[in-house]
Amino acid sequence: MDPAVVLVLCLSCLLIIFLWRQNPGRGKLPPGPTPLPIIGNILQMDVKDIRKTLNNFSKTYGPVFTVYFGMKPAVVLHGYEAVKEALIDHGEEFSGRGLFPISERTSKGLGIVFSNGNRWKEIQRFTLMTLRNFGMGKRSIEERVQEEARCLVEELRKTKASSCDPTFILGCAHCNVICSIVFQNHFDYKDEHFLTLMEKFNENFKILSSPWIQLCNNFPVLIYYFPGIHNKLVENISLVRSYILEKAKEHQDSLDVNNPRDFIDCFLIKMEQEKHNSQSEFTMENLVITVSDLFVGGTETPSSTLRYGLLLLLKHPEVTAKVQEEIDHVIGRQRIPCMQDRSHMPYTDAVVHEIQRYIDLAPCSVPHAVTCDIKFRNYLIPKGTTILPSLTSVLHDDKEFPNPEKFDPGHFLDESGNFKKSDFFMAFSTGRRICLGEGLARMELFLFLTSILQNFNLRSLIDPKKLDATPVSSGFISVPPLYKICFIPV
Length: 490
Prior knowledge:
Blueprint lengths: L2 H19 L28 H12 L2 E6 L2 E7 L1 H10 L6 E2 L3 H7 L9 H17 L5 H19 L9 H16 L9 H17 L2 H8 L2 H5 L3 H25 L9 H11 L10 H32 L1 H14 L15 H14 L8 E2 L4 E3 L2 E3 L4 E5 H5 L42 H18 E4 L13 E2 L3 E2 L6 E4 L1
Parallel strand pairs: 2-7
Antiparallel strand pairs: 1-2, 3-4, 4-7, 5-6, 8-11, 9-10
Helix pairs in contact: 6-7, 6-17, 7-8, 7-13, 8-11, 11-13, 13-15, 13-17
Keywords: Endoplasmic reticulum, Heme, Iron, Membrane, Metal-binding, Microsome, Monooxygenase, Oxidoreductase, Signal
GO biological process, one term: organic acid metabolic process
GO molecular function, one term: heme binding
């Protein structure tokens, strides 16, 4: 190679290193592994299992440390005390949404999940109020979930005890609940549009947890100028949002401002009220993205949890038998389960919690960010710095949950067999950015699971001991493995 070229390359590298070390925020951040120029700590990470990497780093650098994704630092909170201190004790300061480049292209800072500042506060406040008005946490929403549980049981009967992949059936049940709130609509499980939506949701869930997306978020230039599955993600999201936009326009044509039928109607009414406000956050684009966020949060995450839960119950038939015994004792075979039953079913309640704890669906939650410069544990974290709360480190804490890698409902039971709450249960995250649909998700998981086990025995075509419950990947989301199951009518 030409000596002059070598010299230019060396000088360029030295300049990059110099500029890197001149970063004014770097010296104020917590310690962490030494980053390389441009690529940061990416070579030291297992992009297929970020939670394992962060756990290893914590052993060296403690409960609060810094890693670099490309040239961007992220402060990791590891362990219950660090997560609680940041997200609860300093909830407002840690309530920002962290940089997630793929979402910048798809959401543009709109909606609920990836918005920030006043926009997020307004949309969150409106969404919470509207969901409550339509029954969230009330008897009326429970009746919707019970009705969907009946539909789910009927669909499972149609499998005639043959081996099946439960992915789409379970997804349809959860999606129909959120559809009833957003669209005031119930889809047939064989509806073509419905199945297309479910297919896109499921595919996006897998793509978001792929190593390639982790790479794209580290190096955003890949998102705009390189081919890859991120383009499929964008295409799927566009298709879903086109469908939502079509529904929103149909609602506009039949809107009665004095009689709102669902979430979309309420948003359209708010848009009309603020049409003269040029700074209003209530726009058609924000409506579409907000509804999309509700769909994703209300469909794929709870359905993946239930699907993962059924796999664990297949693998642990002794646990399934105890749940069914409790169902027989408390509910019987004729009456449909209701939420009042949960307080009389400590073992089943413990199983539902243990499923969520064990699977660790969102290992690092969705990235947070600090909303201002903040002194935290003698470090000064600059405004806008990405924060990664390791929910894995809380849900798998070996002092709170002995043998955390073992699926054991006893983690949530006291010596007398009563249900035992734990502050370490952060399956829905915690603080200001806790999942808006936590109450609905808890209701669905309990009612769907008890309805299934009330009406069916679960059977696998292979030895339960040989079933693999290891997630396909554990990046942004822990994706459950595919499996087959037989639903044998009781």
